[in-house]
Specification:
The protein has one domain: 3-Layer(aba) Sandwich (Rossmann fold). The protein has a four-stranded parallel β-sheet with strand order 2-1-3-4, sandwiched between helices. It is of the alpha/beta class and 107 residues long. It starts with 5 loop residues before the first strand and ends in a 6-residue tail after the last helix.
Length: 107
């Protein structure tokens, strides 16, 4: 396995542009209809370490894919608000790390 893990972004145009300007190279601007297939394909890519996705896209996914995302430890899927703002409160960064690693690094 490659030691270097990629950070990817899946979202609307403005979100992807913002992350691209911040230096993230792997951005995938998608419409809601395309999001499910793109997320499913990238979840099985071993080079992906962190997947940043718009909250609104995650909300529209079918329940089977949502369950899969909840059960996997890698890649870590982080929901971010889009230009319209947050729709839900997400886990803290500590909780996401705990889920990914299997233990609490703060203790």
């Amino acid at each position: 396995m490659d030691a270097k893990q990629r950070i990817i972004v899946i979202g609307d145009g403005p979100t992807c542009t913002g992350f691209k300007l911040a230096g993230i190279e792997d951005v995938y601007p998608v419409e809601i209809e395309q999001a499910e297939a793109k997320i499913e394909a990238l979840l099985s890519n071993e080079k992906v370490g962190i997947m940043i996705v718009n909250e609104r896209l995650l909300e529209k996914l079918n329940w089977i894919l949502k369950k899969k995302i909840d059960r996997i430890a890698k890649p870590v899927v982080i929901a971010v608000p889009d230009k319209e703002g947050a729709i839900q409160q997400e886990d803290s960064l500590n909780n996401m790390i705990k889920k990914a690693l299997g233990f609490d690094v703060m203790k």
